[in-house]
Specification:
This protein is α+β, with helices and mostly antiparallel strands. The protein is built from 12 helices and 14 strands. α2 crosses α4 and α4 packs antiparallel against α5. The longest helix is centred in the last third of the chain and has 22 residues.
């Protein structure tokens, strides 16, 4: 791929692995003016999770996805300190050297990757993260944390990125610096929030950063606001998964030009565009049919798993119009469309679902000035 420069943020990407070099004359020092603290007070940012209603995972392949947020958020705080301290639910660590920012297979890796990606050093702050979203549950908990981290750091350094820039930067951090095989749905949903139809044409993940275009985001919540709730239920299998591991083999087939994968994802993109109309018109039976077709295609490609298939079968037997993966599959969470969501939820819990969630359009990434960290962290 060679060297690519991301002009918006002054980030250097070297070689195919996208390794960021922390150089005194590059990275954030140039893009932000300096890495000196611009905010002398605490900044807290949060971002929501999401569930793919129809169209996923074509956000990785230039397709279309209809998605809704869930009313649970990932939080990141940043405040001045005498040294760089990174803290997550698995402990706190002091970073004394750039080498200490190497990924360590802990939840602080999101902080490490973002700081390295942006080229910020030194940075004397205390960063903390916590989440209402379960990790590995197929609702984009990790990506919500990445988006909240980007928002917190850039705000702390006195930069006001727009929503498109925030979504794209967060995706670059996750894809290139964390090494996660991912598309764009999660980053756009965590940033924009709401209930959206998103068009990812010309955003295939193998394109260079400079050749990339922004996605088209069409908010749909306005059309659905008269409903007391969407007739959708999320059911967690209890099986933790890593979305990148699920996506990788199918991605490799797509890169090799496998006609089955190529045609499958063209069709799922069409399904999403048809699903947008069905959703707006409240044609629930039609939307359910499309969800089932979406899932059948992804299952045939190897994207599902036994725990997913069990709960999807239970949902359909209980009268769901449609049921499919809410995320990557091989565990995580399913989404089902039913005329009586509460009754369906009871059936899913009886069949072994670990937790139920409700898709609700909520705001995207935001600052949380009133969060009481003392109450949350003790």
């Amino acid at each position: 791929m060679g060297q690519v420069r991301q002009r918006e943020w002054g980030v250097r990407v070297d070689g195919e692995t996208g390794t960021r070099k922390l150089e005194a004359d590059d990275g954030v020092r140039r893009a932000f003016g300096s890495a000196e603290v611009k905010h002398q007070t605490r900044v807290v940012a949060s971002a929501p999770g999401r569930c793919g209603i129809v169209g996923n995972p074509t956000d990785m392949y230039g397709g279309t996805v209809v998605s809704c947020t869930v009313p649970m958020r990932a939080f990141v705080s940043i405040e001045p300190a005498s040294e760089l301290v990174l803290e997550a639910d698995d402990g706190a660590v002091v970073i004394r050297d750039v080498a200490d920012l190497a990924l360590a297979s802990t939840h602080t890796d999101i902080f490490r990757a973002t700081i390295r990606h942006l080229g910020i050093w030194p940075l004397n702050v205390h960063m903390k993260c916590w989440s209402e979203l379960p990790f590995g549950a197929g609702m984009s908990g990790s990506t919500a944390m990445v988006v909240a981290t980007v928002k917190a750091i850039t705000t702390y350094l006195g930069q006001a990125l727009g929503v498109y820039e925030t979504a794209e930067l967060a995706r670059e951090v996750e894809f290139r610096s964390l090494g996660v095989i991912c598309g764009y749905q999660d980053h756009y949903m965590a940033t924009f929030g709401g209930l959206n139809s998103m068009d990812f044409r010309d955003k295939a993940f193998d394109r260079s950063t400079e050749a990339m275009v922004f996605a088209t985001v069409e908010p749909l919540a306005t059309w659905m606001g008269h409903l007391p709730r969407l007739p959708l239920v999320l059911a967690n299998t209890g099986v933790v998964h890593h979305s990148g591991a699920v996506h990788r083999p199918i991605r490799e087939r797509w890169l090799e030009g496998d006609p089955e994968v190529r045609q499958a994802y063209l069709r799922i993109g069409e399904i999403a565009r048809e699903g947008k109309r069905a959703l707006i018109e409240e044609s629930w039976v039609r939307l359910g049919v499309l969800m089932n077709e979406n899932h059948a295609i992804q299952r045939a490609l190897g994207g599902s798993g036994p725990s997913n298939e069990h709960l999807i079968g239970v949902a359909l037997d209980a009268g769901a119009y449609g049921a499919k993966l809410a995320g990557a599959g091989h565990g995580g969470t399913i989404i089902a469309l039913h005329p009586d969501p509460e009754r369906l939820g009871e059936a899913l819990l009886a069949a072994g679902a670990k937790r139920l969630f409700t898709p609700i359009p909520v705001s995207g990434v935001r600052l949380e000035p009133d969060v009481d960290l003392t109450a949350r962290h003790g």
